């Protein structure tokens, strides 16, 4: 029975990234750019001189040796169709001869050279099972392992490569077998075993064409295991002495990406610049350019991002171009160049509509439209929401839509939208503003209860937020309007006590005084207005406060006390209080016998 085929990707192709920015390669692979191509292994497999031990005919007088000599003579002249039956005859007649291992091996090779794969493989297996050890066993195991590997039967390949390693005397064969043993284990998902074998291969310095590939795999395993510091050092070390420029570039970029995650921004930036300077073939230069632009963007160096884009515009590859377009468009947006940002967002969406970057661009377009107060934002937001974006992005789009509705004075729609967003996936930084905006919008459509509920949500859930004094004042005024004077007084008093230095304190003192007056609490009213005038002598409500202080004194027949505040009220706002004050002042002067003042 054929062992099951295990279909796994190499760790080198799994794209283990610390951020999602590096493009993924999901194609199945048998190797990496670091290792020699498959021809290196196949050359070793077919190299008779190094792979197969010498097996001369020592005694022509011995019938067995003579028969083997005939077969070998035909074999070395590459007359495989003639050599095969001679080897078969030898193996059939001389069961105990010491030349059987070489005969079985060369018979299998004859079958292979004649294109008879099944007999060749069966003969290699017979050799391994019968002889078990020795160089011919190692050679046969290597060929069987390579066949199984090419068929993606890694479960069979791994132990055969190990047997080839154990039985071969050739250093080249041994290191090749060891590497492909590790590769087979990796592709089966047996990562711990694979890593151990890769580390062994990586430790062999001399005549090792697989050293860079093994080191690359070890570095990826360290990254996959969350050992970022170790992975950083492994990639960085590989970047300094790898044979192929493409491998150096890959190691530099990977080290740079990990360095960013480890907050080694300066080192990461230098690693990316070095990778770019290599001018190596393949995608890694482009990824390095992208990552360097990200560092510039994260450092608010938006102008440098645009410069980098201009320099590399003609060298952009399809793999990184969507990410580059997005970061450049975002840079234009950050610089306030919204028309250019919108142009690039549109280009990205048209050219790469199915990419994650295009999905992000659709949202970022809304942000740019919001910045320029574009009247089409509401419609654009609805179009975006119809595409069923992730909830987090959908809620942010609804927030932008609500802002646009508020700016367009569509208070009823804005109020409902803001209210719904108070219980959403929006970050806490957004929710307090949603409560406040909902309260404001509801108040504009005279829905006092809903406005009070929204302001209450802000006050209770975010008591330390910067607009709480404003929310308290607006809620107090709504309570006052609905004649809920006790609740109004509580809100005004809270502002006066807890926020004495805030601008809202002035209005709270004025409204508290007026509310007390509505309740007939004239002495408390006067005391409150006096506090207002003391704290805010230039208050816009000074005339009104003075009038009601004088009014209360007049009502209490304290005519002498009433004169000064009434006079100040008339002086500060003669249009409003001139007539109201005049009769009361005349009465005060007459009652006090100050006829001249009358």
Describe the structure.
- By secondary structure, the protein is mostly helical.
- Among the domains are: 1-18 and 34-201, Tetratricopeptide repeat domain (Serine Threonine Protein Phosphatase 5, Tetratricopeptide repeat, Alpha Horseshoe); 300-372, Serine Threonine Protein Phosphatase 5, Tetratricopeptide repeat (Alpha Horseshoe); 541-598, no CATH class.
- Helices cover 71% and strands 0% of the residues.
- The protein contains 31 helices and no strands.
- Helix 1 (38-46) runs antiparallel to helix 7 and helix 11 (211-224) runs antiparallel to helix 12 (228-241).
- The N and C termini lie far apart (124 Å).
- The relative contact order is 0.04.
- Mean pLDDT is 90; it is low at 1-31.
List keywords for this structure.
0% strand; mainly alpha; single chain; rod-shaped; Serine Threonine Protein Phosphatase 5, Tetratricopeptide repeat; 598 residues; 31 helices; 71% helix
- Taken from the alpha-carbon principal axes, the silhouette is rod-shaped
Percent range for helical residues? over 70%
SS element count, helices: 31
Instruction: Please state the CA-atom Rg, rounded to the nearest Å.
Output: 43 Å
Structural class: mainly alpha
| Average pLDDT | 90
Instruction: Quote the CATH topology of the domain at 1-18 and 34-201.
Output: Serine Threonine Protein Phosphatase 5, Tetratricopeptide repeat
Fourth-level CATH superfamily of the domain at 1-18 and 34-201: Tetratricopeptide repeat domain
Proportion of strand residues: under 5%
The CATH class name of the domain at 1-18 and 34-201 reads Mainly Alpha
What distance separates the N and C termini? 124 Å
Number of strands: 0
Largest sheet: none
By CATH, the architecture of the domain at 1-18 and 34-201 is named: Alpha Horseshoe
Low-confidence stretches: 1-31
